[in-house]
Amino acid sequence: MNKENISIAKNTLKFLEKKSFNNIKMQEILKSYNKTSIKNKYELIVNLNRFFDYLLKKNLQNLEKSSRKDMIFEVFMARLDILNLYRIQIKKIINYLKSKPHEFVKIIPSFVETIILMSIQSNMNVNGIKGVANIKAIFVLYLFIIYIWNKDESENLEKTMTTLDGYLNNLEKFIDLNL
After folding, report:
1. Alpha-carbon Rg for the chain in angstroms
2. Which pTM value belongs to this model?
């Protein structure tokens, strides 16, 4: 991720501290960027998602190898810890996407990139038919966990962690997490 896109993501998050995503104007966020490729709110959300992916990669550089299930849990929690730093802003984006489901559909490819990153970081197979099944399972799990995270107001995300652990136990029945 280049420096300008990182700066745009941080600027977007700064504006989201005070305004809803609906009330943010593109020219407010982008006024000091001359040659940005970001042209609309959809691209702002994609840029934010890539910023969170960038932070996740940095945070996972020293992730210790362990069982696949434990690694998936650690990667998910690392992602949620990042999102939690911007909880208010993320909730505003979630509310925006709830009111505009067609916008959510447009950003699904960006979330698939995130799921592939999280799967690779968890040492999961992302190739072939088994890889497609793994990616689909992790994608659905991610959506469920974001839903729980959005409602979890505890400081330590206890409900989210417990739910994630339970889902991973159930997921083991459908995909092989122990390879």
Report:
1. 17
2. 0.90
